[in-house]
Amino acid sequence: MKNFIQLSDAQDLGQLIQEALKLKKEPLSFFPGSGKTLGMLFFNASLRTRLSTEKAARLLGMEVMSMNVMNDGWALEFSDGVVMNADKAEHVREAAGVLSQYCDILAVRSFPGLKDKEADQKEQVLGAFRKHARIPVINLESATAHPLQALADAMTILELKTRKKPKVVLTWAPHPKALPQSVPNSFAQIMQKMEVDLVITNPPGYDLNPEFVQKTPVLHDQHAALEGADFVYVKNWSSFEQYGQVLTQNPLWMMDQEKWKLTNEAKVMHCLPVRRNVVISEELLDSPHAVVLQQAANRTFAAQAVIKNLLEA
Amino acid sequence: MKNFIQLSDAQDLGQLIQEALKLKKEPLSFFPGSGKTLGMLFFNASLRTRLSTEKAARLLGMEVMSMNVMNDGWALEFSDGVVMNADKAEHVREAAGVLSQYCDILAVRSFPGLKDKEADQKEQVLGAFRKHARIPVINLESATAHPLQALADAMTILELKTRKKPKVVLTWAPHPKALPQSVPNSFAQIMQKMEVDLVITNPPGYDLNPEFVQKTPVLHDQHAALEGADFVYVKNWSSFEQYGQVLTQNPLWMMDQEKWKLTNEAKVMHCLPVRRNVVISEELLDSPHAVVLQQAANRTFAAQAVIKNLLEA
Amino acid sequence: MKNFIQLSDAQDLGQLIQEALKLKKEPLSFFPGSGKTLGMLFFNASLRTRLSTEKAARLLGMEVMSMNVMNDGWALEFSDGVVMNADKAEHVREAAGVLSQYCDILAVRSFPGLKDKEADQKEQVLGAFRKHARIPVINLESATAHPLQALADAMTILELKTRKKPKVVLTWAPHPKALPQSVPNSFAQIMQKMEVDLVITNPPGYDLNPEFVQKTPVLHDQHAALEGADFVYVKNWSSFEQYGQVLTQNPLWMMDQEKWKLTNEAKVMHCLPVRRNVVISEELLDSPHAVVLQQAANRTFAAQAVIKNLLEA
């Protein structure tokens, strides 16, 4: 593995998940990172990703240097050929080149602006770091993908599934703000590679990018979709078709205990942070059916497996 | 010890102070933190607390991960049963649950708002972390208490006292902004457990919460209180009675060299940061009577003793 | 060496540069920092300086604690004798005294305000830390000097020079904002100690402080200056004479491929961050003549040599 920008960067995704599950049992067995440094760049807020990735790197023996780009460093320019006489003080070409000399792996979080579909789809920020860095780059959630979250989610489903081919439902839920499609994109993508029966449900106008949906059935009837589900992954996203728009906040799409009764005693998943009583009802979230903390715990070992692979490449 | 939220969390406060004094002599003797992680969450500014606690944890072999919650993470909701459709993206239940999986001890700084007496008195923020975290929680200064500062202060008095039962005066001093009562609360509390003759002096309207004053004499005449003092702890706080108000900035209450002459060559203490020529005169602060740097130095070993106890519990 | 505030703090500058070059080859050979802590205080943005200095300290075995003073800590007062009843909560006397107890070396970045020439020239911020700290202080770029950058620049020239006494041209370039003179000051200073033929070129009104220019020829004709240059150091600075002013942004002073043809196949240098197509043309910056990344890489080992010297003093 040379980078971990998207799930397809893993030669063998199943093996990577198995390695993460193994590391969870023996997190302090391998130190390929001794004497090496992980650089982490945050263009956006982060709690789980920041701490679990830092922890993963240290478990492997690495040093970690983190920067909140917006507060600590210089405003970065990403376009080529620009006369830089405005507010951007440094070009990503130099920044990535310099960071490549201080670090052994670079991890970057950069959310989409959700205004310019084309710029977001071509992953302007992460793409520039991948292009100009001379060291492996890890995606800590980009404009279109959150592969570390997807790995942790896959681990959680493997840990908890009670039948060979469980039914997994990815359901849209309401939210007051426009959120990226990165988490549902990567979740759909990893589920499509696993032995599960995946169904996506969302209101009309909220269908995900067809490249990520592939042949997965998309239902606009949430109740029908939830029927018999073993896992329900709840998540809001903004419209891909009417790009970045919040078309509805219809509270009838919130996941709650009533709807849970339609499922096969499903485990309820969410990547966090979650807005209680908006996305998922408090009652359901505080019930033993919710496995959101287990997902979060798995983030450490997903990151550890990825970093270990990059170090050993 | 399971948490260190308030001084009463220590089974034996005297022993804890003695252990801190011992660690000061041999800070690199114990490594119970090896392979473990301290998470530090700051809702407010910090210099001494941040650095001394980080240093203490590293002296014990721990890794440290710090977050400025306001800048780095998600706005947190602390109320239960809320429909989270406004500006708060994450509930403390999830945040504390997640942090409990990445860290072995959690340390939290959260000052009072000084607007809502009831909310502050019930320690809404720190209380929520204590309730929802599954790991020990350390108070890095909360709405009503600053027990790590009190430990360091007690160490300083033990190191410097020249008679068996010294007279210790806690005196209010003026300040342009409304400050918490946490430092004087915890200082009064720890002094009440020690073999000292404690007196509190403040203007009318500034009496501390009776729960912290207990039977300590409170004088509204600063000169009378200072008479014969061996230690003078100077500190501003906002009114508890007229909650959070600045009732006076009377400069006659500033501690200075003239008033020092009333004392028994007292050592002058302050938790820092201190506003020069407002709280304490520059002349006195720069004299050998001021022991504020010694107090600050002791913060490291107070934190080290607390963390060591939590790790070994 | 007791501090590294300016280049003259090094007893033997040539030896320090040689040591840095040696460390570049064997960065993990010396651990004099084991059990010791570097404190880093940033009053301004930083990428290279922050990460290379942190990395250098860790290579020597040190722990590192960083603070963005403006966001994380208390607003600092630097004047003596002030009644601190306004917005500054802590005096540098206490801050420096406290930090001296938690850290073994203190590193500080503080840019000039570029409003008050006298205050900037006397290095109010860094000078106060040097005066009140009880541990060695490192300059991470101050109002008038950036000696760590100068060390890395000198290393780069030694690594790349092809004749005994190369011609080195320091040329002003346009920039939309007022920048400090610290980088050109320190670069001129270190070049004056080396076996090079140094020439400075800048528009009228932009002559540097005569204390740093010394006897170096200053040409107001850029083309004449560039003739036959082996190294061209490009950098903007604001006017010293009309202090802190941007007198011109004349694009004719930008360094580009055309002007490069006047040189002796010069290596093109810049401290970064650099504004493309304003300071240096993209074409030249992306050509093999530009050695800006090598300069940035050398920052780590320059810092390592300085820290090693301070630890061993």
What would your notes on this structure say?
Three copies of one chain form a homotrimer. Chain A has 313 residues and is of the alpha/beta class. The first copy, chain A, folds into two domains: 7-145 and 299-312, Rossmann fold; 147-296, Aspartate/ornithine carbamoyltransferase (Rossmann fold). Helices cover 37% and strands 14% of the residues of chain A. Chain A has 13 helices and eleven strands. A five-stranded parallel beta sheet of chain A has the order 9-8-7-10-11. A four-stranded parallel beta sheet of chain A has the order 2-1-5-6, with helices on both faces. A two-stranded parallel ribbon of chain A has the order 3-4. In chain A, strand 8 (197-201), helix 9 and strand 9 form a beta-alpha-beta unit. In chain A, helix 1 crosses helix 7, helix 7 (147-160) packs across helix 8 and helix 7 (147-160) packs across helix 13 (292-312). The longest helix of chain A has 21 residues, at 292-312. The first copy, chain A, is globular. Chain A starts with 12 loop residues before the first helix and ends with a helix. The relative contact order of chain A is 0.17. The mean pLDDT of chain A is 96. At the B-C interface, helix 2 and helix 13 of B face strand 2, strand 4 and helix 4 of C.
Assembly classification: homotrimer
Strand order of the largest sheet of chain A: 9-8-7-10-11
**Structural category of chain A:** alpha/beta
Let me know the average pLDDT of chain A. 96
Measured as a percent range, the helix fraction of chain A is: 25-40%
* Helix segment tally of chain A: 13
Protein chains sharing the most extensive interface: A-B, 30 and 31 residues
The N- to C-terminal Cα distance of chain A equals: 6 Å
Stated plainly, the CATH topology of the largest domain in chain A is called: Rossmann fold
Q: What is the CATH level 1 assignment of the largest domain in chain A? A: Alpha Beta
Biggest beta sheet summary of chain A: 5 strands, parallel
